[in-house]
Design goal:
The protein is an alpha/beta fold. It has helices spanning 12-24, 73-85, and strands at 5-9, 29-34, 37-41, 45-51, 65-69, 89-98, 103-110, 116-121. It has two helices and eight strands; from the N terminus they run βαββββαβββ.
């Protein structure tokens, strides 16, 4: 349904370092580099960061977040650890999230600009 997504960043180089490390845990790598945008993906750019030099940090109450699928709980753990090591903040440690309809394993991070990114997997059993 969704072909690709993009987030605004105030510092392209800093965000490139953050996302290269964080998205690598989910099997995505840098595929396209342009002066004001970088695309990450597996075979084509699915996730873009776009320079918005005058951007202010995304307010925590914006309610916006992006969720990316991970293959395993280990991948979710690696995503979270890489994000924290690369300048992000935790917004929810890796763990099971039991809900009425589905149980899933996820972690939430906040990038250097305040964008909220989640990694999720649905373990069997």
């Amino acid at each position: 349904m969704i072909d690709h997504i993009s987030v605004g960043v105030s510092n392209l180089e800093r965000s490139a370092r953050f996302y290269e490390a964080t998205l690598a845990a989910l099997g995505l790598s840098r595929l396209v580099t342009r002066p004001a945008t970088i695309g990450f993906g597996k075979t084509y750019p699915e996730f873009w960061i776009n320079l918005r030099a005058g951007m202010t940090p995304v307010p925590p109450e914006s309610g916006t977040h992006i969720c990316l699928r991970a293959k395993t709980t280990d991948d979710v753990d690696a995503f979270h650890a890489a994000a924290l090591k690369s300048g992000g903040r935790s917004d929810g440690a890796p763990g099971m999230r039991p809900h009425d309809r589905v149980k899933y394993y996820a972690a939430f991070v906040i990038d250097p600009d305040g964008n909220r990114i989640e990694a999720v997997t649905f373990p069997s059993g």
